[in-house]
Amino acid sequence: MTAISHVYNYTVRCPHIKDPSHPTSWLNHIEINRSCEIALDRITKWHGHSGTRLFEHEGCVVREAEQEQAYFSMKNDRLRDDIHVLVTFKVFMDNKTKDTSVQEIMEHVIDDYKSRLSKL
Question: Would you say which domain of life the source belongs to (predicted)?
Fold first, then answer.
């Protein structure tokens, strides 16, 4: 029987600029947590609403959510017999972040995830 030994949940919020003298970026709004409950909630939600496939990067299929302005992906990796990893990615967008590239964001967080895997 396979057990998940590591869980990562990435959430990226793309803030719109409220004050041009204080620029904001999605790079400052990346959250990473290790909650199994959040991962299970996301998987359950996304299973029922698969969304529209946009692209694939490093084995992660990125989809656009149907019910909200968000993009998501999930993946699992087996590093050794005793290390099994589940990762979820969610990117929140709004109408004011049209110039932000979802693909650029996903490439960044997937690279971060791969870096974390290399340290396990």
Answer: Bacteria
